[in-house]
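This part of the workshop introduces the protein records we will be handling. Getting from the letters to the C-alpha cells is the skill we practise here. The record below serves as our worked example for the rest of this section.

…
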Amino acid sequence: MTHKLRFLLRWLFAAVIVLLLILALRRFDGESVLYSLRQIPLWLVAVLVGLQVVTQLLVNALWFQVARLAGVSVSFRQMFYVNCQGAVMDSITPGVKFGGEITRAVQISRVADCSGEQAATVVALQKLFSLSCLFFILLFATGFLLGEMPVLGHFRFLLYGTLVLLLSLFICALLMPRPLRNFLEKRKPSARAWIDRGRGFLLTLLEQLTAIRKDVKKMTMLLILSFIIWLLYPVKLLLITMPFTTDASAIYIGAAGYMAYMVAMLPIFPGGLGGFEATLSGLLTAFGFALNDAAVVTVLFRFITFWLVMLGSLGFLGIQAALKRPRRKGQ
C-alpha cells in the first residue's frame, strides 16, 4: 500500500467518523441528555473515580515491576511521575500512543540514569505484556460481536487476521525469544540505517526476554496483572450502564468497550478522540440503548478513563513543578 493511499484511507476514515458524530449530534435532545445525566447517582461517580485511581496505580505497578525485571532502578514514585508525563502526551498524539511511549522512554532514561536503549527496552517489555493480554481479550470480544451483529461479518477476515497476527507475534516473542534472536542475527545488514537500528533494538529486546524467561513466576505475575488492568475497564463501563438498563448483557457491553478501544488505537485522532466515542455509542445504540443514554454513558466513561487521568496527571505535574521551583529571597 503506497503512502498516498494510506493517507487517503486515513482521512476517509476520519471523515466518516466526523460525519457520524455530526449526524448523532443533530439527533440529540438537550432535555433528554440532562434527564439521562440525572439518572447517574453521585455515589456511582465516586465509585468509578475510585476504580480509575486503582487502575492507574495498578498500571504504574506494572511499569515499576517491568523496570525492575529489566534491571532498571526506578522508584514507584518516579515511575508515577513518568507515567503522568506519558498520559499527558498520550492525549495529544494520535492512536497507538507512540508519543506517550517515547516520552516515557526519555524520562525513564533521565530519572533512572540509564541508557536510552535500556529505557526503550522497558517500554517495549511493558507494551509486550499489556498488549498481548489486550489482543487475547479482543479475540473473544470480536467473536462475540460478530455473532451479535452480522453486519460486522464483512470485516471478519480483517479483524481476526490482524488480531491473530499480532497476538502470534507477541506470544512468539514471549515464549521463543532465543530462536527469533538467532534468526535476526543471521540476517544480513541492511543498506538503510533505520532498519539496522530497529534490528539492533529487537535483538536487545529479545536478549532481555531470553534472560527474564528464567523468572517464570515474575512473568506470570505481570501477565496476570495486565489481565486485571484490562478487565477493570468493562467493569467500569457496566457500572455506568446500570442506571439505564436492567437486562444489559455484561458480555456485550464489555465487548463493545474493547471494540471501541481497538478503534481508538488507530492513528487517526489525538488520543483516539472521535473514533472511540462514535464506536461505543453506536454499538450501545445497536444493542437497544436510547441515543441520549448511549451518549451520556460514552462521554462519562471517556471522561473517567481518559480526561480525568489527563487532568489528574497535569495537576500532579504542576504540584511537582511548584515544589521543585526555587524560592526567591524574601518569600
